[in-house]
Design a protein that fits this description.
Helices cover 45% and strands 18% of the residues. The strands form four sheets. A six-stranded mixed beta sheet has the order 5-6-7-3-8-9, with helices on both faces. A six-stranded mixed beta sheet has the order 14-15-16-12-17-18, sandwiched between helices. Strands 2-1-4 form a three-stranded antiparallel beta sheet, with no helix packed on it. Helix 3 runs antiparallel to helix 4, helix 18 packs antiparallel against helix 19 and helix 19 packs antiparallel against helix 20.
Length: 652
């Protein structure tokens, strides 16, 4: 267990943390939350020893191992993917050498009754146990499973790391952390460069992980699925909730209302007391009471209302100019980079007013298609824009394309034309750039601030077709919710490339999945798509792994029945078939119940997001917890039935 004791961190005269105190248990799943600049990343750095506190201490048990993934890092480029990942197992090689040495010494020792011998046995036992825990017997298999889970293909394993983008190299660093089996994993925005499949694989990994996990994330679905405890940092203090992010929001609102009621009552009492003092201050007969009331006011501890950051990112896209019914249409579109075919003979059509998502694993062609629609990339086949279509494009690296030497004001002033130039300060204020902020250079802005600044540039000219490539990277949860509403209210067409499930939920009702060089159309919301793919609860996320469906189970069963049937009598085969059919039927029933429960959970979560009534929110929270528990039980039952069927149909 890690203990944070009276921790304070100050920069100049500003105290970021003030006498914080909390513990991190051995199996905790903690989400750190708070507005940008509250100190979340600093807290992780203090815990892992990269930053010293001004006061207080962090107590860590001897031998306790910490795995830390920062938002930004430097990478080595001298190894292949597999070689770099294998460095996570340096401990195994060192441990194995130590265990071998201790075993050789054990064979020669005869001082069985001494304290020294017992201490020696304890050391040998601890190191042998550690060796088994980190997977000494099958670490190459672990490496392959982890790299595949994070989106790499087997052909990538032997490629030099220098050939990969920063986002992919971040995945290699994440793989090394996961494979090293630390006692605690600290993750700072781990989902920024992951696709939906990889995020869900990471969720499953972390939920089953034997150690503690502390994560900072702006992905609400990820936090809800991984964490069971939320620590909020507000004005140098912390509030600790035994709940995931969505439940924490409900509890935080309750806390705010309690604080506000207590504050109002205290203010009323102070006002009444001050009136009494003023009224009887100069009456000798009331002097004792007046002095008593004055002392009472001096001693009172004034209630402070927490800063809930009421500033609002006010985004509204300009009205969309009228365009034709068809916004964009593609026929037989293909694109290759050298020998690598990204897309091959794909057809698609997007109509005016539609809100469409491009989803799929990184590298499957989502951004490539966006750039081809923008006519930034050549291709074969035909991509035709509709009548009077005017595109507004937010590139994935849009924020990085801003000039770091320009100020915030100059960045907008350079592109603003006409009357809008007189309103630049108002526009910047709507995006939370006020006062001295507008004179800051772009180079010193945070990732979220640069993303907001790049979004302003997109709003300066009316368009009717928005193409947004990962617009939520670096935005906090509140800002993402406001951007989502702005896109929903936009009366033009929008294509959103995103891996953020919570952002896409309720925003789009049509999706193109990019996989294997094709674009497959899916109608419905993001969670409909995930259920259809059985990527979430049935945990079929490993790259190259086929979805487990009843059809595949039946095919496998029939193959094994054919192989095993000749060895059975008629009665034995009849009994065998009866058992197989019964299990297959039970599996189908469980899958149907799982799908119904997932739909119920999605509906409850939607109601929770829209609910403003505290009593109703508490009721929904309890229903969500009950449904979530039921889903877990169904999954365990489904797994047991699958294992029973596989055991029954196993061919020796």
């Amino acid at each position: 267990m890690i203990a944070i004791n009276n921790l304070s961190v100050a920069f100049g005269g500003f105290k970021l943390f003030d006498s914080l105190q909390f513990n991190v248990g051995d199996k905790d799943r903690i989400g750190l939350t708070g507005k940008n600049g509250a100190g979340k990343s600093t807290m992780l750095k203090v815990i892992c020893g990269l930053q010293a506190p001004t006061e207080g201490s962090v107590t860590i048990p001897k031998g306790y191992r910490i795995g830390y993934l920062p938002q930004h890092m430097t990478y080595g480029d001298s190894k292949t993917v597999i070689e770099e990942t294998e460095t996570a197992f340096e401990e195994i090689k060192q441990l194995q050498a130590e265990v071998d040495k201790l075993n050789a010494e054990l064979a020669e020792r005869t001082d069985y009754e001494t304290d020294s011998y017992m201490k020696f046995l304890t050391e040998l036992s601890d190191k042998t146990e550690r060796l088994a825990m980190v997977g000494a017997d099958n670490y190459m298999g672990e490496i392959e499973t982890t790299l595949k889970g994070l989106g790499f293909e087997r052909k990538d394993f032997t490629r030099p790391t220098r050939e990969f983008s920063g986002g992919w190299r971040m995945r290699i660093e994440l793989a090394k952390i996961l494979l090293s089996h630390p006692d605690i994993i600290l993750l700072d925005e781990p989902t920024n460069h992951l696709d939906i499949e990889s995020i869900q694989w990471l969720e499953d990994f972390l939920k089953e992980y034997s150690g503690a996990v502390v994560v900072i994330s702006h992905d609400r679905a990820f936090l809800d699925n991984v964490t069971t405890r939320t620590i909020e940092i507000v004005l140098g203090k912390i509030y600790d909730y035994k709940a995931n992010y969505s439940k924490y929001l409900v509890l935080r609102q309750e806390r705010f209302e309690q604080q506000m009621n207590a504050y109002k009552n205290q203010q009323k009492m102070i006002e009444d007391t001050e009136k009494f003092i003023e009224r009887f201050r100069y009456k000798a007969t009331k002097s004792v009471q007046v002095q008593s009331r004055i002392k009472q006011l001096e001693k009172i501890e004034r209630i402070q209302i927490d800063d809930f950051d009421k500033s609002a990112l006010n985004i509204k896209f300009p009205p969309a100019p009228h365009s034709g019914v068809i916004t964009v249409r593609g026929k037989k579109v293909s694109k290759a980079f050298g020998d690598h075919v990204v897309l091959q003979d794909v057809d698609f059509e997007i109509e005016r007013g539609e809100k469409v998502a491009f989803v799929g694993r990184n590298g499957e062609g989502k951004t490539t298609m966006a750039r081809m629609i923008m006519r930034e990339l050549e291709h074969s086949g035909e991509i035709v824009l509709g009548h009077a279509v005017k595109i507004g494009y937010f590139a994935q690296n849009q924020a990085d394309l801003l000039n770091p030497e320009d100020t915030v004001f100059d960045t907008i002033d350079r592109v603003a034309v006409g009357d809008i130039r007189t309103k630049i300060r108002d526009i910047l204020g709507a995006f939370m750039f006020s006062g001295e902020d507008i004179d800051k250079k772009v180079g010193v802005l945070s990732g979220g601030e640069r993303t907001r600044l790049a979004m302003i540039r997109l709003l300066l000219e009316p368009v009717n077709f928005l193409i947004l490539d990962e617009p939520t990277n670096h935005l906090d949860i509140r800002s993402k919710e406001i951007l989502k509403q702005a896109i929903k209210d936009f009366d033009g067409t929008a294509v959103v490339v995103s891996h953020d499930r919570e952002f896409l939920d309720g925003l789009v009702n049509k999706m193109y999945e990019f996989r294997g060089g094709k674009m497959k159309l899916h109608l419905g919301g993001i969670y409909d798509f995930l259920r259809e793919r059985k990527m979430e609860s049935l945990r079929e996320l490993e790259a190259g792994r086929k979805s487990t469906t009843s059809a595949s189970v039946e095919r496998k069963t029939e193959q094994k029945k054919t192989a095993s049937a000749p060895q059975m009598s008629y009665e034995q085969k009849k009994d065998y078939d009866r058992k197989v059919n019964k299990l297959s039927k039970s599996i189908k029933e469980k899958e149907s119940m799982i799908a119904e429960t997932e739909a119920l959970i999605a509906d409850i979560e939607k109601q929770m997001n829209e609910c403003s009534d505290n009593k109703r929110a508490t009721e929904l929270s309890e229903r969500h917890a009950s449904a979530d528990m039921k889903l877990g039980e169904l999954m365990e039952q489904w797994t047991a039935l699958q294992e029973e069927l596989e055991e029954l149909t196993k061919v020796d």
